[in-house]
């Protein structure tokens, strides 16, 4: 095995340490809250049940969103952004940057690209050999180009970008709820443990005081850890909510994106409501669930891509209109057929009646003739 390969494997293994650390802290917090606090410390049954129900709700949402943030693969540029084979070879052979840019200009003539490098050139990743779409950046930790890359987060060992930004925001939100709930409900027992009586059992302990048991250390640390995480997550969560409202990634907040007309830090903003819909999707009922609901084209968001979205909507409307017209036509044809059938049936009935009348008339005439002949003979 090559030394570089071994080194890369070691790096990948070490990158999981922060995730394992968080997982261990979460497992311990579960044990400390459920077993040591709810089962061994809280005397009231009703209080135990209420705490356990709300704790498990926040715990499930927190773990679900954390899981989705870690294991959702970052989205890469589609194959339209790769140079064709002949042009790629030509690009590699060329040594002059001007000639390379000419190849890129030709290749990107039909692509919805609005951002440029600081020098006004087409953004190209030499590592991935791909033209970078708007808001796409190369992550050196993941060694790939990531669509609407926000940052590489060591706490989830994944790139936060187009595919998992909603999950990341929800992870921050639910971890804040989880820590706030723990800190708020543990606080009264945290205070009681400071004024605990020295007796080892609850039987001889005065009311409103807690015995000196092993639960003491768990409850004390639970409050400290929850309060500490609360403060750090609150600042990060507030910052990302502000970014969502402005439709900026962390990278764009530090360095304004450069467009054809120059740099513009608000170049991707569509207004507060639409900016939120870009990350969380149009349907509000799915906003708080860690499932992918954002708009398909939202990672591009350049004027042309907006045109593509509008065009899709228009095409959809035309298709729906065609279907409606077709239905109306079919309905008309059916009605016409029914009318024709009715007319035919009516004609047949009339014909039958006429024939029947004719037969009866013939019978009557025949009877009269026979009667006349008989009378004459007589
Ligand atoms: Zn790249
Ligand atoms: Zn990354």
Automatic annotation (TrEMBL):
Q: Which residues form the Palmitoyltransferase DHHC domain?
A: 123-254
Q: What is the recorded membrane topology of this protein?
A: Multi-pass membrane protein
Q: Name one GO cellular component term.
A: membrane
Record-linked InterPro entries: Palmitoyltrfase_DHHC (IPR001594), PFA4/ZDH16/20/ERF2-like (IPR039859)
Enzyme class, top EC level, equals transferase
Which reaction equations make up its catalytic activity? Answer: L-cysteinyl-[protein] + hexadecanoyl-CoA = S-hexadecanoyl-L-cysteinyl-[protein] + CoA
What domain comment accompanies this record?
A: The DHHC domain is required for palmitoyltransferase activity.
- This one is known as Palmitoyltransferase
């Amino acid at each position: 095995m090559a030394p570089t390969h071994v080194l890369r494997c070691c790096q990948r293994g070490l990158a999981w340490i922060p995730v394992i650390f968080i997982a261990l802290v979460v497992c311990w917090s579960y044990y400390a809250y459920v077993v040591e606090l709810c089962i061994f410390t809280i005397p009231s049954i009703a209080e135990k049940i209420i705490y356990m129900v709300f704790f498990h709700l926040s715990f499930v949402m927190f773990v679900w969103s954390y899981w989705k943030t870690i294991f959702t693969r970052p989205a890469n540029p589609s194959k339209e952004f790769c140079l064709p084979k002949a042009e790629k070879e030509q690009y590699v052979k060329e040594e002059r940057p001007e000639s390379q840019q000419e190849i890129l200009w030709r290749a990107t003539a039909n692509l919805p690209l609005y951002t440029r490098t600081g020098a006004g050139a087409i953004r190209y990743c030499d590592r991935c050999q791909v033209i970078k779409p708007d808001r796409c950046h190369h992550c050196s930790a993941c060694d790939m180009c990531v669509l609407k890359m926000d940052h590489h987060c060591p706490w989830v060992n994944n790139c936060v970008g187009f595919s998992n930004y909603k999950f990341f925001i929800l992870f921050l939100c639910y971890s804040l709820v989880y820590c706030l709930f723990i800190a708020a409900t543990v606080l009264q027992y945290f205070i009681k443990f400071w004024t605990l009586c020295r007796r080892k059992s609850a039987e001889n302990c005065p009311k409103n005081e807690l015995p000196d048991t092993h639960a003491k250390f768990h409850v004390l640390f639970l409050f400290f850890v929850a309060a500490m995480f609360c403060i750090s997550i609150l600042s990060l969560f507030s910052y990302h909510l502000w970014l969502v409202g402005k439709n900026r990634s962390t990278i764009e907040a530090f360095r304004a994106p450069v467009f054809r007309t120059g740099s513009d830090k608000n170049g991707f903003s569509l207004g507060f409501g639409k900016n939120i819909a870009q990350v969380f999707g149009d349907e509000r009922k799915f906003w708080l669930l860690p499932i992918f609901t954002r708009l398909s084209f939202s990672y591009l968001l350049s004027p042309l891509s907006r045109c593509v979205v509008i065009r899709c909507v228009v095409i959809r409307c035309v298709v729906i209109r065609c279907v409606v017209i077709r239905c109306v036509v079919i309905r008309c044809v059916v009605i016409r057929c029914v009318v024709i059938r009715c007319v035919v049936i009516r004609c047949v009935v009339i014909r039958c009646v006429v024939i029947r009348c004719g037969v009866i008339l013939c019978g009557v005439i025949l009877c009269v003739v026979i009667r006349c002949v008989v009378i004459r003979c007589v």
